Amino acid sequence: MRKVVLITGASSGIGLALCNRLLAEDEELHLCLACRNLSKAGAVRDALLASHPSAEVSIVQMDVSSLRSVVQGAKEVKRKFQRLDYLYLNAGIMPNPQLNFKAFFFGIFSRNVVHVFSTAEGLLTQSDKVTADGFQEVFETNLFGHFILIRELEPLLCHSDSSSQLIWTSSRNAKKSNFSLEDIQHSKGLEPYSSSKYATDLLNVALNRNFNQKARLVSEIQKLTIKGLYSSVICPGVVLTNLTYGILPPFVWTLLLPLIWLIRFFANAFTLTPYNGAEALVWLFHQKPESLNPLTKYLSFTTGFGTNYVKGQKTGPWALLRDFSDLFWVALTLSCLCQHMDIDEDTAEKFYQTLLELEKSVRITMEKSDHPS
């Protein structure tokens, strides 16, 4: 039986690179591309099938910034499939990014220069807007639309014969300081992208806590073969895509590229290409989900010589040090690679419950709209 993989945001950037890399690993997959633009998705499907003729590739129209589109797309997925083995939650936006030039120049001459430019901490602000659903666009696109998708697809994800994996594209830019339970949509702040990615990390922890641990407990008590729904988060590193090209004019990127390539010899977080950035996504495809640490973010890295590898960013600042003996490299790594996932499990659970309440109100509103009295 073919494994079924659904990928949001599959028509460009890291999502498209992931499609190609997964089929290069296993041509017997059935890829389902969940995309806003059907014509663009159709061209991608044709190209994938031309390169991998034994694969199966289908398309579902879905815009994760529209809850109705998510619900409708999920219905189509449930008509097409009996199960999903992998759900890659990859679609995301960073609208109208603005570079803080003061922070940029201070960062260049600071001792934390590598950390600043690999995480964009304090460098970027975005202009958010409200969607037709009444939510902040970044929150709905990057997180809440995906949350509703998971809820809609639970019958395909939670089943008794094997486990399913949720794999989120998060970011090193996910910062606790940019998230608040009192303003989960970051409507009062200037860094909604960072907030949405921290919210992604929180939700990842909560999903594992509420699904796979519960499943293991039931299995232990009742001796059933129930498997869990497992969730993981990754960071693709600093990748040059349409998302990042909007930050600076193209000629500036052209000037910076030689410097970036040089920095990559010391800071492997600069993966640069979508192919390299997808490394952690592909790596997770091969892992047994029950062996993964739910409190770890998996990071794509690329060496200065172009070799890709994956490291885990755990909930502790010393997580990556056991592999390093050179003191200089340790110091540089601390500034760039070893920021720990600053996640509190109680906050994650509170956030999850908040999303469930928000979902209830959304469904009531949609029901009233569909059946006006």
TrEMBL record:
It catalyses: 4alpha-methyl-5alpha-cholest-7-en-3beta-ol + NADP(+) = 4alpha-methyl-5alpha-cholest-7-en-3-one + NADPH + H(+); zymosterone + NADPH + H(+) = zymosterol + NADP(+); a 3beta-hydroxysteroid + NADP(+) = a 3-oxosteroid + NADPH + H(+); 5alpha-androstane-3beta,17beta-diol + NADP(+) = 17beta-hydroxy-5alpha-androstan-3-one + NADPH + H(+). One of its GO terms (cellular component) is endoplasmic reticulum membrane. Pathway: Steroid biosynthesis; zymosterol biosynthesis; zymosterol from lanosterol: step 5/6; Steroid biosynthesis; estrogen biosynthesis. The keyword Glycoprotein applies. It is found in: Endoplasmic reticulum membrane. Keywords: Endoplasmic reticulum, Glycoprotein, Lipid biosynthesis, Lipid metabolism, Membrane, NAD, NADP, Oxidoreductase, Steroid biosynthesis, Transmembrane, Transmembrane helix. Its main location: endoplasmic reticulum. GO terms for molecular function: 3-beta-hydroxysteroid 3-dehydrogenase (NADP+) activity; 5-alpha-androstane-3-beta,17-beta-diol dehydrogenase (NADP+) activity; estradiol 17-beta-dehydrogenase [NAD(P)+] activity. It is a single-pass membrane protein. GO terms for biological process: cholesterol biosynthetic process; estrogen biosynthetic process. Binds to the short form of prolactin receptor. Belongs to the short-chain dehydrogenases/reductases (SDR) family. ERG27 subfamily. This is 3-keto-steroid reductase/17-beta-hydroxysteroid dehydrogenase 7. It comes from Myodes glareolus.
